[in-house]
Amino acid sequence: MLSKLLPKFLASIIGEMYGRRRWQLVGLLVILIVNAIAEFANFGLFFILVRLLSADLGGDQATAMPVGKIEATLMELTPLNLSLLFIAILTVASGIRLFTYWASAQFSYRLSYDFGTRAYSRFLHQNLAWHKNTHSGDIIAILTKAQVLSHALVLPILQGLTAAITAMGAIAFLLSVSLVPTLVLALIYLLSYLAIALLVRPALRRNSMKVKLAHASRVRSGQEAAASIRDVILGGLQGHFTEKYRVYDADYRDGQSNSLVLTGMPRFLLESIGIGSLIALTLYFFQRDDGLANVLPILAALGLGAQRLLPLAQQIYASWATVSANREIASEVLEAARRPAQLSSKRSVASLPFEKSIELENVSFSYSDTLSPVLDNVNLTFDRSSTIGVVGQTGGGKSTLIDIVMGLMTPTQGRMLIDGYALRDSEDIRRWQANISHVPQEIVLIDASIAENIAFGTNRDRIDMAKMADCITMAELDAFVATLPNGAETRVGERGAQLSGGQRQRVGLARAFYSSAPVMVLDEATSALDTTTETKIMHRIAHVSEDMTVFIIAHRLSTLKSCDIIYEIGEGKLTRFETEAYLSRPEASLT
Ligand SMILES: Nc1ncnc2c1ncn2[C@@H]1O[C@H](COP(=O)(O)OP(=O)(O)O)[C@@H](O)[C@H]1O
Ligand SMILES: [Mg+2]
């Protein structure tokens, strides 16, 4: 029954912990045991003190109860000294408890940080296909959920354990003093809590699922509304979006408050049961008529015990309930942290030697079995020192082709060879990617300075300013940067919102230039530029790219002038055109 009450995934947390954390956990458990011993000593001293005092009432304690060696020694102390000793031990015990409290908090928050950071890193190590199928809102939600591991999983478990071990210390002592009444008292508590736990378990599970789903949906809707704020304002859709958010938020808060009530509730029910059973015991002892002096210490010990045990039992139950109420979220975070990395991410890998060609061999690709293939058994070779135009209708598969060439998507069938070497694994792909710079169709900037966006992923103090200036010039950004208050140090806002589409594109181009990779991919990278600016930039690219491989995806024919060869993609096939021939087709004059 107990194993059914405990979530299985607890074992997997320990399995996933870093070695250091495991040792810390062992250390913590040792402190918990020390805690219990201190608790035991506390009880013992208190009991002896009461016995010593009640001896004056004329009780015959020496014969009424067996006296241990330590007990005998202690009973020789004066009541005053014994009281002082009692207070001293109590103080030490409180100190230990404080330390346990601190150590538990430290441990659990560090664990959250371990798992949260690992989940973040694992997200970044998933391939593009995975990211295309995963809502970024869900990713952010999981990262914020990582904190649940501390305050709703590890900390409660540790507090529960502390309470359980402490309770054991107290119970062990009480059993040695008064076997049957202690057993009766403990059983009443245990059974009451077990009954409540079984009753509320389904509700806690439901809340757990509710909170998990609502949490992610809240983040999603926040993100989506912010991202399409223009359309929200224009359509007067604030109410519509608020209502959607309200529903999720209500679910989320309901789930949380319900769980909170279910967690705290038994305390109120059991207070009366606890006191009731204590009164029953008192009546029982007095009716036995063993003499006040003999009964008083036992009753005092039981009273103190009950008063100590009730909160401890409540703590154990509350820990279990809190964990149950958050198990779905916790499992999600654990799963994210455990998700195997699909990609290699070595930054300073030796790039794959690339002198001659990129070859696609029998390459097919479809996004799913039910969709028609974007590439259908394609065979072709791109020469290293060439500029390749890729054209075709929107949705024809240009970006997909390029994603495959860049190793971002894996062909469903066939393979890619670089200088005749077939890429086999993520390490190979990583080494191939070290050759590539890419200007995507929709460039998203980071909220940092223009310079940091251009030298993407380079720390500020390591930016090569001379090279930066060249790249700014190449991307026709000189005049724009000159108008900015802080020049290239000016921040661009979230996603580059403070720049125009064309300015963002040029920052993207400058980023590609800065990386000085031998393969450059421009995916509709100049679509937002006026023709004069575009022509200037394309000229510069043609000038510096003699020994480079440049892929240009474009709709505007003027963009393609510098291409050596043009491929048209459509219905899974690629058709090869000489540039001259392609640009002078009769239908070309229409575009
Ligand atoms: N993640 C995806 N899942 C399913 N289909 C997709 C996905 N991404 C793109 N597609 C489909 O693949 C086709 C090619 O898309 P894409 O390569 O982006 O075209 P292009 O860049 O030529 O406009 C389109 O029909 C598009 O709808
Ligand atoms: Mg595209």
From TrEMBL:
Q: What is its main location?
A: membrane
- List, in alphabetical order, the Gene Ontology terms for molecular function in this entry: ABC-type transporter activity; ATP binding; ATP hydrolysis activity; ATPase-coupled lipid transmembrane transporter activity
Domain (ABC transporter): residue spans on this chain: 358-591
In terms of superkingdom, the source organism counts as Bacteria
Q: Where in the cell is it found?
A: Cell membrane
Q: Which InterPro entries match?
A: AAA+_ATPase, ABC1_TM_dom, ABC1_TM_sf, ABC_transporter-like_ATP-bd, ABC_transporter-like_CS, P-loop_NTPase, Type_1_exporter
Enumerate the SUPFAM superfamilies for this protein. ABC transporter transmembrane region, P-loop containing nucleoside triphosphate hydrolases
List residues of the ABC transmembrane type-1 domain: 26-284
Key words of the record: ATP-binding, Membrane, Nucleotide-binding, Transmembrane, Transmembrane helix
| Pfam families per UniProt | ABC_membrane, ABC_tran
The membrane-spanning stretches of this chain are 25-50, 82-103, 152-173, 179-200, 268-286
Q: Which GO terms describe its cellular component?
A: plasma membrane
Mode of membrane association: Multi-pass membrane protein
* PANTHER family, per the entry: ATP-BINDING CASSETTE SUB-FAMILY B, ATP-BINDING CASSETTE SUB-FAMILY B MEMBER 6
Under what name is this protein listed?
Multidrug resistance-associated protein
Provide the species name.
Alteripontixanthobacter maritimus
